[in-house]
TrEMBL record:
Membrane topology: Multi-pass membrane protein
Name assigned to this protein: Na/Pi cotransporter family protein
Molecular functions per Gene Ontology: sodium:phosphate symporter activity
Biological-process GO terms, alphabetical: sodium-dependent phosphate transport
Main location: membrane
GO CC annotations, alphabetized: plasma membrane
Pfam families xrefs: Na_Pi_cotrans
Entry keyword set: Cell membrane, Membrane, Transmembrane, Transmembrane helix
Transmembrane stretches, start-end: 18-41, 53-74, 80-102, 129-150, 203-224, 244-266, 286-308, 320-340, 360-383
UniProt key word Secreted: no
Amino acid sequence: MSQVESVEREAAPGTGRFLQWMAVIALIYVLICAVSLIGSGFKSATGGQAQELFSFASNPFVALVIGIVATALIQSSSTVSSLIVGMVAGGLPVAIAVPMIMGSNIGTTVTNTLVSLGHVRDKSEFRRAFSAATVHDFFNLIAVAIFLPLEILFHPLERAGEATAGLFLGDADMSMSGMNFMKTLTQPLVETLEGVAGVLPGIFAGLAMVLIGLALIFLAISYIGKLLKVLMIGKAKAVLHAAIGRGPITGIGSGALVTILVQSSSTTTSLMVPLVGAGTFTTKQVYPFMLGANIGTCVTALLAATAVSGAVAIHALEIAFVHLIFNIAAVVLIFGLPFLRNLPLIGADWLAGLAAENKIYAAAWVLGMFIILPLLLVGITSLF
């Protein structure tokens, strides 16, 4: 609690807060420019042949693994989803991007597990904290286990995303004229960065644009999160404490709201782990709040999609809506059905009991979830 209070005290009054909000706006501008730059760079690097370049990922399980590993390494699903939006704008097929988006949900949960290790010295605390951390893991695994086969067979998410994007943009050939002001705003910085990368020959110019864009996205999201924690952590804490224990709908909605406020689902869910470890709340009480974080984190990808113009704009917006629809549908289905709702809680309590008795189980879970499972999926699917 003292750390939170010290963060709150750092928020400068008056002019200081105004400058911090201006910095947030500037970083959002950089984020949008970076996504546009990635789209241009990816298109340039692949020569418009993104389908052929990513033919190895046409297997949805391989695409899922890419999403898991990339997010686990970067520890930011917002960064990965924004990168995927940019790649779709550059020609990555939406059918390949959908499993990547699903994988990013699994990969982001590693942060919770690492936070729970801070309680490892106290057996009871660690059991509670590890349970709170892994309930999110189990939920996301169940969501992917249900929706990925459905997506492979019937493409409901892709179709729903396309239909929703169509409501905003109309025909797929439309040039997103309603958002041309965004292109006008971002064009100076994007063209400057394209010019810098353009000094490199051929494909290397496109790769440089992608790498510069990725670095800018990572920095922008990282610093937006830090600034918003200073500016909004007090409000986020108030929402958190007011919501928990007041029913699942309130918990889910508040989890989404807090994540939008601090622009980081990892921050939202990681706030829960120490509170459960300390015995302030139970895993069952914070469970809906964590599910809301899945929904709130989709705002970043939707924001990133506004960077894209031209005929590919509808595809960029489509994959951003796929992310939102997937997370909402998972919450409605899994949390809405009693026999599914309790599975993540049962799994988390069981695993936490094992980990509390022998820490090797905690290490095995992290290695298994984020290294061994992805390798097995790639290995098994390559045989068929």
